[in-house]
Amino acid sequence: MKKIQISPSILSADFSQLGNEIKRLEDAGADMIHVDVMDGHFVPNLTIGPPVIKTLRKNSKLTFDVHLMIAPVHKYIKDFADAGADIITIHPEATDNLKESINHIKSFKKKVGVSLNPDTNVSIIERELENVDLVLVMSVHPGFGGQKFIPNVIEKIKILKKIKDEKNYSYDIEVDGGINFSNSKEVVNAGANILVSGTTIFRENNGDIKKNIETLKEV
């Protein structure tokens, strides 16, 4: 079993100090940095774009795990690749041709992720699973931080793990949304090996991010 990796979501960080926040996460033992990109169209919120990612890239050597919640996504892939994203994750609903967008990401020598919303079935992406590096299971409806975990997604994680094992695929299973000290064990036991967490990492234990990252890794 792969070791559990923690990808803190900077959506919960102090946006006036993002460079310092990323440095703090790196020093605290984060494995990667999860960057949520929202367009106010595909999801009802706006966050950061390529210029900010390019600036933040100078503050860390960690993997930038960039989740694109934008539509149409295909024409923006190059911008995020050039800005310094290491993993580019897209939603199947946000592109006219998922295979083409996956190959486009690969053309920039970036790792490819596909994301499943809580109501999106695994079957939508199943034929592309052999071509991706990561599947991001959303355990909340994307667009806002601080939401409660949706328990129904546990079954989806199990399905992805079963397909991965039976077909000897190599994708990581990442889960994002409402991850905390109470539900992380169940998520990992279902098959996830990367946990995205924002509120828990930045707010629990009086903001002791090192302790919070270590606790999540110990599930």
Secondary structure: number of strands: 8
Second-tier CATH architecture: Alpha-Beta Barrel
Largest sheet: 8 strands, parallel
> How many DSSP helices?
8
CATH-assigned homologous superfamily: Aldolase class I
Strand percentage:
15-25%
Helix fraction by DSSP (H/I, runs of at least 4) = 25-40%
- What is the averaged pLDDT score? 95
Low-pLDDT sequence parts:
none
Radius of gyration: 16 Å
Supply the number of structural domains: 1
Order of helices and strands: EHEHEHEHEEHEHEHH
Secondary structure class reads: alpha/beta
CATH class: Alpha Beta
Strand order of the largest sheet: 1-8-7-6-5-4-3-2
Intertermini distance: 13 Å
Question: Per CATH, what is the topology?
Answer: TIM Barrel
Shape: globular
Care to describe what's here?
There is one protein chain. With 219 residues, the chain is an alpha/beta fold. It has one domain: Aldolase class I (TIM Barrel, Alpha-Beta Barrel). It is 34% helix and 19% strand. The chain has 8 helices and 8 strands. The chain has helices at residues 18-27, 50-56, 77-83, 98-107, 153-167, 184-190, 199-207, 209-217, and strands spanning 5-8, 32-38, 63-69, 87-90, 111-116, 134-138, 172-176, 194-197. It has an 8-stranded parallel sheet. Helix 3 (77-83) links the parallel strand 3 (63-69) and strand 4 (87-90). The longest helix has 15 residues, at 153-167. The protein is globular. The model has no long low-confidence stretch (mean pLDDT 95).
